[in-house]
Amino acid sequence: MALEVTDLNFDDVVIKSGKPVIVDFWAEWCGPCRMIAPIIEELSKEYGEKIVVAKCDVDNNPQVTSRFGIRNIPTVLFFKEGKIADKQVGAVPKANFVNKVNALL
Fold first, then answer.
1. pLDDT exceeds cutoff 90 at 60
2. CB neighbours (10 Å) of residue 55?
3. CATH node for 3-104
4. What tens digit of pLDDT does each residue of 37-52 get?
Protein backbone atom coordinates (compact mmCIF):
# COMPACT_ATOMS: atom_id res chain seq x y z
CA MET A 1 0.00 0.00 0.00
CA ALA A 2 1.27 3.46 -0.89
CA LEU A 3 2.36 5.66 1.99
CA GLU A 4 0.71 9.03 2.49
CA VAL A 5 3.31 11.82 2.49
CA THR A 6 2.68 15.35 3.71
CA ASP A 7 4.44 18.68 4.03
CA LEU A 8 5.61 17.51 7.46
CA ASN A 9 7.01 14.05 6.67
CA PHE A 10 8.06 14.39 3.01
CA ASP A 11 11.80 14.77 3.64
CA ASP A 12 11.91 11.87 6.11
CA VAL A 13 9.95 9.49 3.87
CA VAL A 14 11.22 10.54 0.43
CA ILE A 15 14.46 12.52 0.50
CA LYS A 16 16.14 10.50 3.28
CA SER A 17 14.97 7.10 2.01
CA GLY A 18 17.60 4.47 1.39
CA LYS A 19 15.48 3.10 -1.46
CA PRO A 20 14.23 4.68 -4.69
CA VAL A 21 10.89 6.43 -4.13
CA ILE A 22 7.99 7.23 -6.43
CA VAL A 23 5.58 9.95 -5.34
CA ASP A 24 2.16 10.33 -6.93
CA PHE A 25 0.94 13.95 -6.62
CA TRP A 26 -2.85 13.78 -6.85
CA ALA A 27 -6.17 15.26 -5.72
CA GLU A 28 -9.52 13.72 -4.84
CA TRP A 29 -11.35 15.67 -7.58
CA CYS A 30 -8.89 14.69 -10.36
CA GLY A 31 -10.27 12.14 -12.84
CA PRO A 32 -6.90 11.14 -14.38
CA CYS A 33 -5.53 10.73 -10.83
CA ARG A 34 -8.24 8.17 -10.13
CA MET A 35 -7.32 6.42 -13.39
CA ILE A 36 -3.70 5.82 -12.33
CA ALA A 37 -4.44 5.13 -8.63
CA PRO A 38 -4.83 1.35 -9.18
CA ILE A 39 -1.53 1.32 -11.11
CA ILE A 40 0.26 3.07 -8.25
CA GLU A 41 -1.14 0.50 -5.80
CA GLU A 42 -0.03 -2.37 -8.07
CA LEU A 43 3.48 -0.92 -8.19
CA SER A 44 3.46 -0.73 -4.40
CA LYS A 45 2.60 -4.43 -4.17
CA GLU A 46 4.92 -5.59 -6.96
CA TYR A 47 7.99 -3.54 -6.00
CA GLY A 48 7.30 -3.12 -2.27
CA GLU A 49 10.62 -4.62 -1.16
CA LYS A 50 12.72 -2.60 -3.63
CA ILE A 51 11.10 0.85 -3.65
CA VAL A 52 8.94 3.15 -1.56
CA VAL A 53 5.64 4.18 -3.14
CA ALA A 54 4.00 7.32 -1.78
CA LYS A 55 1.05 9.58 -2.53
CA CYS A 56 0.84 13.31 -1.84
CA ASP A 57 -2.53 15.12 -1.91
CA VAL A 58 -1.77 18.48 -3.55
CA ASP A 59 -4.74 20.22 -1.91
CA ASN A 60 -3.56 19.38 1.61
CA ASN A 61 0.20 19.82 1.07
CA PRO A 62 0.89 23.14 -0.64
CA GLN A 63 4.53 23.41 0.52
CA VAL A 64 5.73 20.18 -1.11
CA THR A 65 3.55 20.81 -4.17
CA SER A 66 5.10 24.25 -4.64
CA ARG A 67 8.65 23.07 -3.83
CA PHE A 68 8.60 20.64 -6.74
CA GLY A 69 6.67 22.92 -9.11
CA ILE A 70 3.68 20.61 -9.47
CA ARG A 71 1.26 22.40 -11.80
CA ASN A 72 -0.53 19.49 -13.45
CA ILE A 73 -1.82 16.34 -11.84
CA PRO A 74 -1.35 13.52 -11.77
CA THR A 75 2.41 14.04 -11.64
CA VAL A 76 4.57 11.16 -10.50
CA LEU A 77 8.12 11.99 -9.45
CA PHE A 78 10.77 9.28 -9.31
CA PHE A 79 13.47 9.87 -6.68
CA LYS A 80 16.83 8.17 -6.35
CA GLU A 81 19.24 9.06 -3.55
CA GLY A 82 17.03 12.00 -2.58
CA LYS A 83 17.03 13.62 -6.01
CA ILE A 84 14.49 13.62 -8.83
CA ALA A 85 15.58 11.02 -11.37
CA ASP A 86 12.49 11.06 -13.61
CA LYS A 87 8.98 12.47 -13.96
CA GLN A 88 5.68 11.40 -15.48
CA VAL A 89 2.85 13.88 -16.00
CA GLY A 90 -0.65 12.68 -16.86
CA ALA A 91 -2.37 9.34 -17.01
CA VAL A 92 -0.34 6.78 -18.96
CA PRO A 93 -0.33 2.97 -19.23
CA LYS A 94 1.26 0.89 -16.48
CA ALA A 95 4.15 -0.06 -18.78
CA ASN A 96 5.38 3.56 -18.72
CA PHE A 97 5.62 3.48 -14.93
CA VAL A 98 7.23 0.03 -14.90
CA ASN A 99 9.94 1.19 -17.31
CA LYS A 100 10.71 4.21 -15.15
CA VAL A 101 10.77 2.16 -11.93
CA ASN A 102 13.06 -0.44 -13.49
CA ALA A 103 15.45 2.34 -14.55
CA LEU A 104 15.74 3.34 -10.87
CA LEU A 105 16.73 -0.13 -9.71
1. yes
2. 21
3. 3.40.30.10
4. 999 999 999 998 999 9
